[in-house]
Amino acid sequence: MTKKYFALYILVAVFTFLACKEHSPQIPYSPTPYDLHYPDFVTTFTNAPVIPTDNPTTIQGVTLGRQLFYEKMLSNDMTMNCGSCHKQANSFDDARQFSQGTNGTFGSRNAMAIINPAWGDRFFWDGRRSSLEGQAHDPVTNPIEMANKWPVVMQRLQQSNAYPELFFQAFGTRIIDSNLIVKAIAQFERTLISFNSRYDQYIYLHGNTLTPDEADGYELFQVFHCTGCHTYGLFTDGSFRNNGLDLLPSDSGLAKFTHKAVDYGKFKVPTLRNIAQTAPYMHDGRFATLEDVVNFYNKSVNQSSPNLDTTMQHFTAANAMTTTQKAHIVAFLKTLTDSNFIMAAAYAQP
Ligand code: HEC
Ligand code: HEC
């Protein structure tokens, strides 16, 4: 080999090496388990979350899922991500009564906060999805939300610079498909854990105080039967009930999914954690403030609503609250705000 050719050979070899290095980083597939940590007191109220065996939570999966939760390529016109309607500052809820989809259309239900979903087993107001993986399929193709088609999403991500490698780190393959996309999003959602409000610090962690009004509201929350459905711990028992909002509910709720008359007018009992951050309230966002909600429970429960929950029989004029009691319940509800949750850098748009 002449000197000239040898130099050329070296040059080509160096370039090939650099090019390969750039396109296939040498990090092997080795997923690291992600520890979903939460305080011990939680297990006195509820079981540990059930993680699907085919989708264990890993650091690499959560990293990818967070990226995808905030990925606008998921929507048809690339203007919207999950975070457009589930905003961290609102505890992953939407401050609008009805969210607007990419096509400018509105649905008829208020978006739901995403708080401690790892403990959930039925999602949406009507419970039509039984896993976070299943749930995450829907907004992408829903015409009133992201209005996209899965093959389009898969192709866009496949052609991007970063995603094939992120999928390899999370799942051991660079071939992107919708199942892996929803698995990663579900993994990220399971990390959205909130048990560090002032209420928790006071009652369980012994590190803060409640004012006398708030402490009284805490007592009244039980006295007025709120704990019948918004149970301590998660502040929901995960069930579907009719709390008597309407005499004839226009949205059939759970029955829309089960097609059973006994489920007409029942809706998922929402968590009350971070409730001061998730206005407006109820499945149709009809109440703007917590005062409105408490006024409803105090005086306006429709006792003749079909399938009214039996607990609601206590909510009559004879059991009415005083103005002070109402104010104290609202003060208590506001202690359920976990400011770490709404500020946590790990949940923010990467
Ligand atoms: C256009 C606004 C919008 C977008 C975008 C959106 N959502 Fe939602 N989300 C909603 C609404 C509205 C509901 C309640 C709908 C219903 O019950 O029928 C909901 C419900 C949910 C729930 C159920 C929570 C519970 O407690 O049952 C989860 C979880 C969720 N969304 C996650 C996501 C994910 C993940 C994405 C992105 C892939 C996403 N959402 C995109 C508006 C939106
Ligand atoms: C029979 C069960 C039940 C009882 C008792 C009950 N709730 Fe509810 N609560 C629900 C259901 C179900 C919803 C959602 C209803 C809907 O949107 O159609 C709800 C919604 C709420 C909301 C709005 C949450 C949101 O994210 O939109 C608040 C706040 C609330 N309840 C507070 C209370 C308070 C305070 C009490 C006691 C005075 C109470 N609840 C008693 C079942 C109950």
Describe the structure.
By secondary structure, this protein is mostly helical. A two-stranded antiparallel ribbon has the order 1-2. The N and C termini lie far apart (52 Å). Helices cover 37% and strands 1% of the residues. The chain folds into 2 domains: 29-194, Cytochrome c-like domain (Cytochrome Bc1 Complex, Chain D, domain 2, Orthogonal Bundle); 198-340, Cytochrome c-like domain (Cytochrome Bc1 Complex, Chain D, domain 2). Residues 224-226, 228-230, 241, 243, 245, 267, 269-270, 272, 275, 278, 281-283, 290, 293-294, 297, 309, 311-312, 329 line the site of one heme C.
How many β-strand runs?
2
The biggest beta sheet reads: 2 strands, antiparallel
The rounded Rg comes to 24 Å
Estimate nothing, just give the exact number of structural domains.
2
Strand content: under 5%
* Ligands, deduplicated: heme C
Q: Identify the overall geometry.
A: globular
CATH hierarchy, class of the largest domain: Mainly Alpha
User: What integer is the average pLDDT?
Assistant: 93
* N- and C-termini, Cα separation: 52 Å
Run of helices and strands:
HHHHHHHHHEHEHHH
Please mark out the parts with pLDDT under 50 across 5 or more consecutive residues, or reply none.
Answer: 14-22
* CATH architecture assignment of the largest domain: Orthogonal Bundle
* Proportion in helices: 25-40%
Per CATH, the superfamily of the largest domain is Cytochrome c-like domain
How many helix segments?
A: 13
Structural class: mainly alpha
Oligomer: single chain
CATH topology of the largest domain: Cytochrome Bc1 Complex, Chain D, domain 2
Major β-sheet strand ordering:
1-2
